Amino acid sequence: MKEFQQAYAALNAQQRQAVDTVEGPVMVVAGPGTGKTQLLSVRVANILRTAGAEPRNILCLTFTDNAARNMRERLETIIGQPAFHVNIHTFHSFGSDIIGQYSDFFTDRQLLQQIDELGRYQLLRDIFEQLPHDNPLSAKAGDDFVMIHDASKVIGLLKQNAITPKELHAIIAHNQKAMEAIAKEIASAFAATPSPKLLDTYEKLYQSAEKLCDKRLLFGFPEYLQVLCTELRAAIDDIPADGRYAKSMTAWRNRWCEK
């Protein structure tokens, strides 16, 4: 299997260890865009290649339709036609299949179909209507809630990444502490209009943020200061040495700071 060997050769040592382990549970913890889908696709191919399993015996679950489609496409490039016999679903579509196969056990017909866009909007609107007037989310423009569409997008992202309400509260508390720890230094660094002349000031800000930065993943994601540091480093590196303006720092300030 030339395609498998090429895909396997592109993995690092830890990824290969995960692929080679075809018996028992394997947990892969990594942030977005780090190659988890490719790793899992190669692992499925290796199980089919070495463990004697049939494609129909394997179940792969993802959070989004795009991820499921991406996994099947990658698996197809590695093993070809058998990829279409591997069960690759989102959690919702797999649940719907189970309900469909055993419909006698599900008397509530509403469980047999996913809520549509209108139903989702109405559900959120009912929740927003119950918010106290001093809640920032209760602001309206005409008859519509200003933040309702943003809230829907955020809920979707949280579901895609399996973040529970308890974990969300922990992330918010963690990020709040990080903001408080670096806020004064950011305010001081941007007290004046961003300029290449302030390069030393920006470097000191970066060093301070880097010291506070926790490199560990928080529920599988890089923490607030880690993202801040990465973008700050990129903005500093984009400052022209002989220019009059520091547009990259202005853009960074506008993204990370309130006026």
List keywords for this structure.
single chain, mainly alpha, Rossmann fold, 3 domains, two-stranded parallel ribbon, two-stranded antiparallel ribbon
Report on this model:
The protein is mainly alpha-helical and 259 residues long. It folds into three domains: 2-101, P-loop containing nucleotide triphosphate hydrolases (Rossmann fold), CATH 3.40.50; 117-160, no CATH class; 165-256. 56% of the residues lie in helices and 6% in strands. The chain contains eleven helices and six strands. The chain has a two-stranded parallel sheet with strand order 1-2. A two-stranded antiparallel sheet has the order 3-4. Strands 5-6 form a two-stranded antiparallel ribbon. It is flat, with a radius of gyration of 24 Å. The chain starts with a helix and ends with a helix. The mean pLDDT is 87.
